[in-house]
UniProtKB/TrEMBL annotation:
Keywords attached to this entry: Cell membrane, Membrane, Transmembrane, Transmembrane helix
InterPro entries: Pra-immunoreactive, RDD
Nucleotide-binding recorded as keyword: no
Subcellular location: Cell membrane
Transmembrane segments: 37-55, 87-108
Domain RDD, residue spans: 2-120
Membrane topology value: Multi-pass membrane protein
Origin: domain of life: Bacteria
Keyword Transferase: no
GO cellular component, one term: plasma membrane
Name this protein carries in UniProt: RDD domain-containing protein
Amino acid sequence: MDAVIVAVVSSPFTYESWSAVYDERTGTWHAEQASHWFWGLLIGFLYYWLFHAYWNGQTPGKKILHMRVAREDGGPIGVGQAALRSVVYVVLTATCCLGFLDLVWILFDRRKQALHDKAASTLVVDA
């Protein structure tokens, strides 16, 4: 659900467009198709960071599933911890293979932590 929300919110900013690019080899300008992925990553980071930091460690998707992100000792995560978790999550998700590894890691980890949880010392727990 969270990925759908991020996709809908960021879609006006992530459309495909054409940009003029200068080719130094030929000394000419030409049109290149460019994707505005930066805005999608920024919106994804802000979404996860702000919800986790300021909404009891929950996004709308986690709230529906009765889950929340907590510190490893069970306490609420802080703003910095939520930011680190979100940065690592967005960077790993932006790279195809690492995003897949981040999700699969949960299956083999004894504490069921994804890589972004390990980086930020967080756990996803029942709410």
